[in-house]
Amino acid sequence: ETAEAPVTERTLVLVKPDGVRRGLSGEILRRIEAKGYTLRAVRLLDATPALLHKHYAEHEGKPFFEPLVEFMMSGPVLAVVAEGEGVIPGFRSLAGATNPTEAAPGTIRGDLGRDWGTAVVQNLVHGSDSPESATREISLWFPEL
Ligand code: RTP
Ligand code: MG
């Protein structure tokens, strides 16, 4: 009996408004592809409050929640579905620590991000943190997939 081929893993990546504004979308997509992951879907959009409240539901009530939603509506977001074995933790490794001051050099946040003294940390990218989050978030940002 032969083993089934594993179902290909998918994650949701967002290039946040700071990344789009700074012209880093291409560099961030380049790093995802250079790592060997496949871009399955890409969309530039203006996120609505309803979408962001669902996307960040786990953070509702935290002190940074409203500044975070404001920041995420400060310009267009590039939403990406990336695919490949291990892509969920793999993209989190590429992204680096949440705080760009602490993120290791070599990571997206460590190489390209910094503290700008804003109300909420601007850290260039989002990546799903678990298979459950990935499924939920992909259905929010790409309902047709
Ligand atoms: P993300 O969800 O965006 O990939 O980032 P993450 O997992 O590294 O961080 P998470 O804890 O999920 O927080 C989501 C986003 O909220 C903002 N944040 N600000 N104390 C703060 O000022 C603070 N904590 C979180 C960041 O934009 C973070 O990416
Ligand atoms: Mg998170």
Helix/strand layout:
Elements: E1 10-15, H1 17-21, H2 25-35, E2 38-45, H3 49-55, H4 65-72, E3 77-83, H5 87-95, H6 108-112, E4 125-127, H7 131-141
Antiparallel strand pairs: 1-3, 1-4, 2-3
Bound molecules: ribavirin triphosphate and magnesium ion.
Describe this structure in words.
- The chain is of the alpha+beta class and 145 residues long.
- The protein has one domain (10-141): Nucleoside diphosphate kinase-like domain (Alpha-Beta Plaits, 2-Layer Sandwich), CATH 3.30.70.141.
- 39% of the residues lie in helices and 17% in strands.
- The chain has helices spanning 17-21, 25-35, 49-55, 65-72, 87-95, 108-112, 131-141, and strands spanning 10-15, 38-45, 77-83, 125-127.
- It has a 4-stranded antiparallel β-sheet.
- The longest helix has 11 residues, at 25-35.
- It is globular and about 55 Å long.
- The mean pLDDT is 96.
- Bound molecules: ribavirin triphosphate and magnesium ion (MG).
- Ribavirin triphosphate (RTP) binds at residues 64, 68, 98, 120-121, 123, 126-127, 129.
